[in-house]
Amino acid sequence: GLAQYSGDPRIEWHLNAYGTKDAVLDAVRNLPYKGGNTLTGLALTYILENSFKPEAGARPGVSKIGILITDGKSQDDVIPPAKNLRDAGIELFAIGVKNADINELKEIASEPDSTHVYNVADFNFMHTIVEGLTRTVCSRVEEQEKEIKGTIVASLGAPSDLVTSEVTARGFRVSWTHAPGKVEKYRVVYYPTRGGQPEEVVVDGSLSTAVLKNLMSLTEYQIAVFAIYSNAASEGLRGTETT
């Protein structure tokens, strides 16, 4: 998404406006320049209220990153609105051009300054920071995705108390205690301890048992039961059994 600002910020396009890189680049090439005042604090508040909403294309579980480009010192206070953005989980990068105030850029950007604050003498030199900025943003997105997924998994309850029964030469029953919350399905993955292709059985979230069939006799099997929620899976409940 992109917003321009002076005294009156405006959205040029939202996150969900274009579906391809070429479409975005074409929109950038045709972007009219907006001159005027430099009310950066107002602009930061504006994007918090308008650019990081589901209707604007923001998605749960996806990194939120804002990149500010300014060519002058702000005429209003930037500290509270920048903090509000950071507190909302939005990582901020600040790029100063020409007469931008480096200390103000540091007050806006997330830490550390060494990777989140950039300054160039003129717009013609923007190409000198693109590679480093792109690399940093992409690596931070990857790190945040791991953090987000880890938080989701940690917050999801897993099934417990794995029990096997009805053991025969060719199969056995696996039972467990339900995981908390709204479980859509349970996924039971099993494979021979000595090596082999993993197989799985999926049962409805209302059930807490599954029968594993057509197994090899006299073979130890590794078992893992996962609770499947609407947008993630729990850690596995693990155990073994021998036919």
Automatic annotation (TrEMBL):
Question: What positions does the domain VWFA occupy?
Answer: 1-133
GO cellular component annotations of the record: collagen trimer; extracellular space; interstitial matrix
Span of domain Fibronectin type-III: 158-243
Pfam families recorded for this chain? Answer: fn3 (PF00041), VWA (PF00092)
Localisation per UniProt entry: Secreted, Extracellular space, Extracellular matrix
Q: Which SUPFAM superfamilies match?
A: Fibronectin type III (SSF49265), vWA-like (SSF53300)
User: What protein is this chain from?
Assistant: Collagen alpha-1(XIV) chain
Species this protein is from: Cariama cristata
